[in-house]
Amino acid sequence: MQLSTLEKLNEARAARRAAVVVNDLSSGRAQVFIEGEGFPAEWEAGISETLRSGRPSLATLAERSVFINTYLPPPRLVVIGAVHISQALARLAPVAGFDMSIIDPRTAFATAERFHGVELLADWPEDVLPMRPLDPYTALAAVTHDPKIDDYPIRAALDAGCFYVGALGSRKTHASRVERLRSAGVPEEAIGRIKAPIGLNIGAASPAEIAIAVLAEIIGALRHRDRGEQGRAA
């Protein structure tokens, strides 16, 4: 790999942005494209599919045979609330390849005894997230049932373009949440991205079952995320 290619990949990794390397099989020339910087419009289908799947692929772009390799930031899961569901997610998420953090200002819940091997931040999301910003490769799950804790990170996740934003609560609870978000000026399109009630509808009852339903929904959102116009050249 050429030094210039490695430097661009390191730049993307540091910024938690995806990158693709397009290798021309005839000439041996490699081109690096960092997410958001654009690529030729005629290459959109091949590159976008590789970015979406996270898997390398052979393709024909502009009548050239190429090998496309992709480098995605490791997916993160940020959970708002140190509750029983979070304890189950803390065991499951690493198995699925997610880095996980839990944020909860309630020190009676956010204790090291209840959460082993997971990053636990016993502080308000308003204080944590500006220093540890969310991004499109982060999923956010708000599970405290407390709007004083959940509402701010939900808005922050929508603003950051997180690939998944889910919130615990009944339809009635979510209806109240929607009204609060509207009052705060959150656009209807963004509100519509919130998965609530959270998790796939599998009839989950216990915290462990709910955690499985939530993680499955997050994985589905990651693998089927709509990249929209993010990589298209102007």
UniProtKB/TrEMBL annotation:
Q: Where is the XdhC Rossmann domain?
A: 77-218
Name the Gene3D superfamilies on file: NAD(P)-binding Rossmann-like Domain (3.40.50.720)
- A Pfam family matched in the record: XdhC_C
Q: Which domain of life is it from?
A: Bacteria
Descriptive protein name: XdhC/CoxF family protein
